[in-house]
Amino acid sequence: MTFLLGWKDVLRPIRDGYRHLFPAPDTGPTPEERQRQRAVDQLKGFTYFDTFEQLQMWTEGESDPLQRSNTPLLVRSVSRRDGLGKANILFCHDYAGNYHDYEGVSNTGLDEEEYACGYMQFVETFIYFSHKLVCVPPPTWTNTLHRNGVKALGTILIEPQTLGSEKLLQHGDDGLSFPFARKLAVMAKHYGFDGWLVNIEKPFPTASWDADILKAFLTQLKSDLGTEKQLIWYDALTTSNKVSYQNSLSASNLPFAKACGSILTNYCWKENDAANSLHEALRENLSLQRIYFGIDVWAQNTTKVSHPRITYPEYGGGGTNTGVAVAKLAELGLSAGVFAPAWTFEHFPRHGRDVERTMWEGEELPEAISCSCGDCGKRHRANSAMPLVGFARQYSAGSDAFFFTDFSRAFSTHDDREKHVLFGGLTVHAQLGSQSILPLNGASVTSPTLQHRLEDIPGRTQLVVETHNSLLSSAKDTTSSNRYWVLPLFKLDMPAHRPLQLRISFRDLTDGNLCFYATVSGTKHLFTAHNTQNNCVLNATIRAAPSSKLHPRLEELGVYVNAFEAKSTVRLAEVDSICIQRVTAEVSLQSHDTYSIYNIRTAALGEGDTRHLRLCWSHASSGRPVEGIPFSDVTGPFSYFALHIDGVDLGRSYAVEHILSADLVDQIAKREVSAEIRGIGFDGQVLASASTMLQF
């Protein structure tokens, strides 16, 4: 049938195992240009390797402190009941090549907000993907993901143009000791992320090929990573040393999937592929939750007839219909691997947040929206019947012993001086590594007019609780069902057989009509603070009722408003932070620990294009980690450091060094200015502060 095809079709490399024979010509930067760019990217906190030689040379000592994440993974409380009929969601994040400036460790001014994974409570694992040999997630992503309980994985990628791929499997004489496996495991621990996706898109040289050697490499890498980290095999290379996408768990990829413990399939599967994979996994004693079926979000776009992008369902899959595939996988008890979820931002410039809501919640697209497909309203129609949130597993916020949020978003505003000194005249800046656990979406179930929203003010974000343009029920004319309104904020799952300490910093603007509630095993407990208008801190102890069941659990936290008459929009409360932790002897002893910040100084580093000035400091603490409260291998009890120089808010640093912007250095040159550093704990409390005068 070849004679029916055009010559372009005959010669075009396709994803059938022959693409390695047609490697794309390298028309990009020269090796020298790549090396210079890599040095510049290192100052943004980025770590990646283009060649095996670079990987071979890496040691822990040669890494920059800016490249390490400091936030430990907050281990979610997982209830079997919550996962019934839902699919675990893995994201494979490939956003226009990645390693963008807004993902760097220094806050960056922006024209508009970028992608920041707005539905983390539904995401189990997040793979950072770039077309590098070895791709480490930026510490900003790892810090934010860990704070929200999401695993962060890097990528090992061998593509058709990769040189020396056989070096990956170099081993000792015993055939069981692999130096690169050990190095990759050490790298994950050092930079603080949670494992690797192994994606091999090119056959190994025939003379050196042995499927058992690759299996042994994967087995060692998984062992060296340890039980708390994850290794995932991508469905490309088969046991016959061919790139042949199975779109399923099959005999051709099973040995590698078992060695890794997980597999992410290609995205062109059909229902039979998923059903057969289920049976294969059960037969081989592989966890169904570790079988991720790929879904290509971009498949909904217009593509060439000769080379269509296809994902489940075959017609119209991906994009705003991503939930359809997730629903099918949830029905089968399998997991979903969503490729390129930032499609919402990349394909719809300036409408990313709206389209993200369409994909996740089924909301209608904005009327004026357009895209390069040419028929946006028809092609990307909202699917309100099968949105992602309806079939993705939703995880509880926090862990079983600790919860904290200060409502920080990945983007924020700043004052006029910072606008010009730090952010090039732009009014919004990225702070990707600071995104906190954010509240549930939606309005009150008892009164749709009662809602919450996040409000950015210079230096921070607050949660605003308000009503919207409606006459609320009068207190003198209420029935038992509408004398109050309930607005859930967070879904939790914390054992409550021992007391839990609740601390909320907020302002009540209702003159006493508002309080907070905590639901323990179905029973609501109300907590009121008597101060109004001014800043108020509610300190309360959550205890299970004596009549509660044997294993009581804290299930929900929200706002409780007594009914009152109101016209138009009414602002009810402003909330700054919420913390919940176990009441233990260790927590009370923590107040006697001592913390300090000292030796604030500057250091001039680099040369040429990488020459810069850093603010540096040291820290110390007594005592020991408190059970349940996060503790960093990098910064100990400190979650981050708040920095100010000459009255300018530099934002947060998650390391003990911070690069000063060239514009700021120019402005304070030849002056002696104040430098202030505050160390903030994982519970939001100021643990230590120090200031000094520095000569520039």
Automatic annotation (TrEMBL):
Residues 108-413 form the Cytosolic endo-beta-N-acetylglucosaminidase TIM barrel domain. GO terms for cellular component: cytosol. It comes from the Eukaryota. Pfam families: Glyco_hydro_85 (PF03644). Transmembrane segments: none annotated. GO terms for molecular function: mannosyl-glycoprotein endo-beta-N-acetylglucosaminidase activity. Gene3D superfamilies: Glycosidases. InterPro entries: ENGase, TIM_ENGase. PANTHER family: CYTOSOLIC ENDO-BETA-N-ACETYLGLUCOSAMINIDASE, ENDO BETA N-ACETYLGLUCOSAMINIDASE. This is Cytosolic endo-beta-N-acetylglucosaminidase TIM barrel domain-containing protein. It comes from Ascochyta lentis.
